[in-house]
Design brief:
mainly beta; SH3 type barrels; eight-stranded antiparallel sheet; five-stranded antiparallel sheet; 1 helix; about 45% strand; elongated; SH3-like_bac-type; signal; SH3b domain-containing protein
Length: about 280
């Protein structure tokens, strides 16, 4: 990977500051769409992470949390698919697991986990990625994220098919970004997508009143300048009293070019503070 020159670093930082000022699954699952209604309340976030997850124990019952989950003949993403199971399918852990772990993006979240040998309800045995299964009652997983529908903790859930697309413009030289504006029920949703080659990508979401006063703002970025690479997610809630910010970061060793998909959320606990 190329190393940024001093001048490029300055330009990179300047471009990121400008973007902030403007505000402007090889997958193991098949993506599906969710009919998601816009949120009217702002709950505390539920983390789709594995922090504090229960250990995998022989004969444990595990539950798939993604649809069309591949069960493979070997503990690797290019292993032959022996069967597929649906969301909430029950799998029995045989006690055998891979020696190492893999990093795989599922529904926009990067999980690092071992492969587990499991048995399906009909007795078929094979290997499943540990990030794609959970214990009963475990908080893990999130709805699918698509170009048309998405649900982010604190920021809310949105189906853009229910919004009117007002405008879209593309700008930038060193940093390319696209700003798309939607309107519904007197509110404005502005989505900015930014990218700087192999060094950075990110999204900014702004929910505003008709007069452009801010309700909520969400920023997500993957910065791949120096290892470990950094994923950062921040949500500012201006509608609460007092306004608060939720923030979390995740360090990863894999460049986003080498992942099966691009992360769109951070897999880590939230830190909450007043704005």
């Amino acid at each position: 990977m190329r190393i940024l020159s001093f001048a490029s670093c300055l330009l990179f930082g300047s471009c990121l500051l400008l973007l902030m000022a403007c505000g402007s699954e090889v997958t193991d699952t098949d993506k599906d769409e969710a009919g998601i209604e816009p949120s009217v309340s702002i709950p505390d976030p539920v983390d789709p992470d594995t922090t504090g997850a229960e250990p995998f124990i022989t004969n444990d019952e595990l539950y798939a949390w993604v649809d069309n989950l591949n069960i493979r003949d070997a503990p690797k993403t290019d292993g032959k698919v022996v069967t597929r199971v649906d969301d909430r399918a029950v799998l029995r852990f045989t006690g055998e697991r891979s020696n190492g772990t893999d990093a795989i993006v599922l529904r926009g979240v990067l999980y690092r986990a071992p492969w587990l040998k499991v048995s399906t309800a009909d007795g078929t045995e094979g290997w499943v990625f540990g990030g794609a299964v959970r214990h009963e009652g475990e908080v893990k997983g999130n709805p699918p994220i698509t170009d048309q529908s998405f649900s982010f903790p604190v920021f809310g859930s949105y189906d853009l098919r229910e919004w009117d697309k007002v405008s879209e413009k593309q700008e930038g030289e060193e940093v390319d970004y696209t700003i798309t504006t939607y309107r519904k029920n007197g509110r404005i949703l502005e989505i900015t997508r930014a990218e700087m080659g192999e060094f950075y990508y990110g999204w900014t979401y702004k929910l505003m009143e008709q007069d452009s006063s801010m309700i909520k703002e969400r920023k997500f970025s993957f910065t791949a300048q120096d290892k470990p690479f950094i994923l950062e997610e921040k949500v500012m809630d201006y509608s609460s009293a007092p306004p608060v910010v939720y923030q979390r970061t995740q360090s990863v060793e894999e460049h986003f070019y080498r992942l099966n998909d691009r992360p769109m959320m951070v897999n880590a606990p939230w830190q909450k503070a007043p704005l």
